Backbone:
């Protein structure tokens, strides 16, 4: 059994939960940082993780969580405060002697982006680079888990509509479980990857018409792609009560998507984790109970 100890922040989120599970499977000793104790954190404890309470906006809680840690994973939600959180994380890592940091950024991180979140991720990457820490940046494309989001699944996808303002833009959707495997592999052996930035993609680049076809085949019901304008999309998000920062980010990110920023694919997931990434169809079949409408 490995004595290598790693810290995973955002451990009850999509990538954090997957990274915790895979790290434990790889024999790493995992400390999982969460905001509160609840059923999700209890599930992590049952897997074998040590759960601690922490807040990336409170440096002393991060410093305490990093005590005795060899490598740490940084993830931050789409909300204000990323740069401050990154500075706190970097300072706590330097104080505690953490030897490596894995940072989850965004495929569309760009100082010139229309999205405030994408700009912040670009600056956050630079902060970690300036820190002198051995850091590896991950830049995933859009998650397959987007299919579950409240502005997609209950309102539209249940009714057979894949609704997004993407035009003929293309990307290679990636699942959180695949990212978790990459994160765990890098936490286990970070040295050769220090200073690298890895775009992460699913197995096939496609537009949303193709995505709708694959979803239709997997779910056994007709799914059609509905393109809308970015303004229409953002207005509908506001009506659902989506926070302004998230709406602003999605508007800017969708503009980038339409201009090809999310396009491309590669073999990084398989090369880094040893396993091929999950396709749209396989993901949909795995989660058909959530993606198909329930009888009313």
Residues:
């Amino acid at each position: 059994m490995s004595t290598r100890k790693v810290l995973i922040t955002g451990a009850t989120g999509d990538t954090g939960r997957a990274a915790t599970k895979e790290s434990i499977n790889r024999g790493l000793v995992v400390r999982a940082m969460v905001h509160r104790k609840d059923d999700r954190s209890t599930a992590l404890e049952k897997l074998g993780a040590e759960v601690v309470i922490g807040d990336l906006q409170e440096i002393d809680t991060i410093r305490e969580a990093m005590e005795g840690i060899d490598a740490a994973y940084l993830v931050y939600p789409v909300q204000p405060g990323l740069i401050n959180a990154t500075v706190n994380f970097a300072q706590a890592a330097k104080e505690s002697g953490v030897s490596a940091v894995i940072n989850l950024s965004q495929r569309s991180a760009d100082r010139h982006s229309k999205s405030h979140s994408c700009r912040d991720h670009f600056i956050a990457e630079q902060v970690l680079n300036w820190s002198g820490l051995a850091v590896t940046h991950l830049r995933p494309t859009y998650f397959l888990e987007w299919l579950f989001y409240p502005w997609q699944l209950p309102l539209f996808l249940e009714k057979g509509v894949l609704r997004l303002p993407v035009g003929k833009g293309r990307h290679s959707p990636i699942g959180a479980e695949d990212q978790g495997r990459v994160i765990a592999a890098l936490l286990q052996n970070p040295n050769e990857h220090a200073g690298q930035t890895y775009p992460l993609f699913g197995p096939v680049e496609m537009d949303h018409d193709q995505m709708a076809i694959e979803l239709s085949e997997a779910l056994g019901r007709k799914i059609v792609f509905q393109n809308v304008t970015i303004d229409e999309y953002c207005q509908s998000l506001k009506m659902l009560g989506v926070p302004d920062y998230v709406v602003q980010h999605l508007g800017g990110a969708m503009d980038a998507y339409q201009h090809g920023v999310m396009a491309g694919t590669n073999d990084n997931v398989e090369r880094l984790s040893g396993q091929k990434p999950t396709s749209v169809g396989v993901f949909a079949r795995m989660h058909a109970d959530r993606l198909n409408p329930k009888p009313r």
In short: The beta strands are 5-8, 29-34, 50-53, 71-74, 100-104, 135-140, 161-164, 197-200, 224-227. The radius of gyration is 19 Å. The chain has a mean pLDDT of 96. The longest helix spans residues 82-96.
